[in-house]
Amino acid sequence: MGTSLTPEFWTMSAVLLVVAMGVTFVATATLDALAVRLLRPHVHKAPTAAPFRSADADDRVPVRR
To answer: Is residue 1 pLDDT above 60, yes or no?
Structure first.
C-alpha cells in the first residue's frame, strides 16, 4: 500500500523545519549566554580612593578673567 506525498505534507514539513530551527537558535543563544556569564571570572575590585592631598599643597593654576 503506497502513499503519495501531498503538497500539504511538504508545507507542514517546511513549517516544522523552520520552527525547529528557530527553537534551536533561541535555545543555543540562551544557553551560550548563560555559560559565558557563569564562566566569566567575578573580580571584586575595591573602590580606588583619591590620593591624599594636604590643604596647603594647592598646585592649581589660577584663571584670570
So the answer is: no
| Look-up of cell digits 503506497 | 2
Count CA atoms closer than 13 A to 22's CA, side-chain side: 6
What distance in Å separates the CA atoms of residue 10 and residue 35, rounded to the nearest whole number? Answer: 37
Q: In this predicted structure, what is the pLDDT of residue 7?
A: 93
Give me the DSSP letters along the chain.
------HHHHHHHHHHHHHHHHHHHHHHHHHHHHHHHHHS----PPPPPPPP--TT---PPP---
**Full-model pTM:** 0.54
- 32 residue type, one letter: D
